[in-house]
Each structure stands twice: as C-alpha cells, then as structure tokens.
Give the backbone structure.
Amino acid sequence: MSSPKSSSIGKGTQLVTGGRSGAFGKRVVNPPVWRASTHLYPDCASLREGVKSNADGNFFYGRRGAPTQWALAEALTELEPGADGTVLYPSGLAALVGALMAVLRAGDVLLVQDNAYDPTRNTAMGLLKRYGVEHRFFDPLDTAAYSDAFCDRTKAVMLENPGSLTMEMADIPALAGIAREKGAVSLIDNTWATSTGFPALERGCDISITALTKHIGGHSDVMMGAASAGEKLHRRLRQTAQQLGHVVSPDDAALALRGLRTMGVRLKQESESALAIARRLSARDDVAHVLCPMLPGAPGYELWQRDFTGGCGLFSFVLRGRDDAARCRLIDALDLFGIGYSWGGFESLALPFDVEPIRKKMSWPKTGWGVEDRCGIRLSIGLEDAGDLIADLEQAFAVMNQD
Ligand SMILES: *Cc1c(COP(=O)(O)O)cnc(C)c1O
C-alpha cells in the first residue's frame, strides 16, 4: 500500500496509513526496529557519496536516523499540512529548545507567551539568556500589547494554545500573522491538540512543535518531541539538531508510531469524557471556574470552535474559596486518578497547580478569578469509563468537604 497524501482523506485514515511509503511500508504493517549506529557501504566511492545527501531515507550514520525514525518523521509530516519535513528530538522540551536555537542568535529578542509551558519559560530565562538572547513575556489575550512588544531585534515568538495550566485560548492566526508582518518566526507548542486538531502551519505558524510524550506516545512509556516546518526552516531545524547531537532511539520511534495509529480514537474518547466531566464540575458550588475551551460557555470556546478540529482530555478547574489543604484532601482521596506530571496517556491524572508565582504579564486580577479562588487542579482524562471518573471525583469532593 502507499501513503495517501490527499488532504481529502480522513484524519483516522491518515493516522493509520502515514509514513508507510518506504520499502517496508509496502511489506509489513510496522517498520522493523532498526538498531544501528553504523551503516555499511559497498565501497569508498559510495561512502563519499553517502555524506552528501543529508535527508531522511539516506543511510549515513546512526545520528541521521534509520528506517524506523524516518517512518515516524514521515507520518508526522503528512499529518501537518504545509510541512516539508519533521525533526525528531529525545523529548518535547528538547524539540522546543532545539527549534528556538535553530532560529535565534545572540542579540535577538524572543517573545514568549506568559502562559507557556513552564520549562519553555525557564529556557528563555536561563539557557537562551546565557547565550545572549533576550526575552519578553507577553499576554496572548492582549493583541495590542503583543504587537507593541516587537522591536527591530525581535526574531521569534513562542506561542502555545491553549496556555499551560490555565488553558486560555489565544487568537493564533492573528498572533502568527503579526509575527510574520514584523519579520519574526512564529513557533507554536502544539502538544494539546496536535496537528490533527490544530493544523498549525495552515493557521499561519512557521514551526509546529509537539511533545510526542503526550498524545502520540499515548501510553506513558516514551519521551520524544518533534518539530515540523516548511522547506527552509526544516533545513535549519535539521542542521541545528544534528549539531546538537539530537537522536532518538528506533525502539522509542516504534513506540511513538504505534501510539500514533490509535491516537484518533483515543483523543475522541478522551475529549468526550472530559466534556462530560467538565459539565459536571461546572454545576458544582465548590468549583469557581472550569477552564476547558471545549465546554460551551467556558473561556476560549469561540476560538476553539473557530480554529480547532479536535480537542483532548486535558483541562483544569479552580476550587471556590478553598485552601491548599482542602485541595490536597480532594486529590489524595481520588482513587482512579494518578497524581503525577505529564498527560495524554490512557490513564487519568490529577495535578494541583498555582500559577501566580510563575506569571509576569497575566497577573491574578486579569484572570477574572475571585481573590479567594486560587487553588487550581488540572485533570488529564484517560480512557476509563467517564461514569467511574465522575463517581470518583464526587466521592473525593465529599471527602474535601467533610472538614
Ligand atoms: C510535557 C510538555 C512538553 C514537554 O514534553 P517532554 O517530552 O516532557 O519534554 C512541552 N509542552 C507541553 C505543553 C507539555 O505539556
């Protein structure tokens, strides 16, 4: 079989058939796990020829990959309309940092969404600063202030939608459009929806980055990241990743590819359960805010409807007037939800969060939350039955409210 490239085919079909154009794709369903540092050449002439063609599909040395990694990269490129290629990284954060390093140099200014994933913010404040790149945080909901934040040296903007933890939806086509007008490269952390729910390049972004650790791996057993872009930027991503020595193992690439095949049904199911749970939570008196852009009436719903073709099981809520002790009582009483970082696996997780100490431009009064309503909880809804998850949450709320 060949990989249908037509965008008229459904996402589920694309997820199943992607990345199978190579020699193996026609003969086996899954590419072999091809473990190799060294590829052998028949003679010196082919060895010399081999180094010249730096592209997926050409054997050279393990750092440039082998058929398992190429199949995954090809599948991801096919899923991102407008992409010429995809570079794989050993984690989602490595993809974010690798992409930033590919487009920035000393003296440049980087704009970072104030509600970006915390390690992304830390890279701007730490590593990039040490290498001479300045950063400015901006409120993605304030387009005028964002536009004013550009200067002659602004060379890149780091976007993410929805924002980490507080799940604000920004108008990405507008923000990416402004970046383009000002001559800056826009990068987006597209982990929440993936390209199947938000075709980032089609919506105006230049580089689409995904933590494959989350939905694509999908089983909490692999860490990986990817960045996809058009021809020119893909070449820069690739060169920088090779200079940084980034490489992913074929075993991990096979796991990510396996996860990818079923991602469509998982995201559909998770989204449906998350929506049912978000509805229940929004009816409770002890919940002040449900931060779930897929929920009609919730903040960001209109933009989600306009720009996205899918969602996922990750959303947050804020307790009304409760303190941290009450919040911990609730989370500790949960039976089916694990307590831990990450998300996008088949199992449900709960995480307490406090954003006030980590935000610079999106301070508390701007969130519209009450002064007493500060205790946030993020849920990653997995594939358990929604009814069981709702019952688990309800008994945990009862434990919280006992004192
Ligand atoms: C988890 C996550 C990452 C980083 O992925 P890792 O594989 O854990 O490094 C990046 N962005 C977002 C939004 C994430 O949730």
About this structure: The chain has a mean pLDDT of 94.
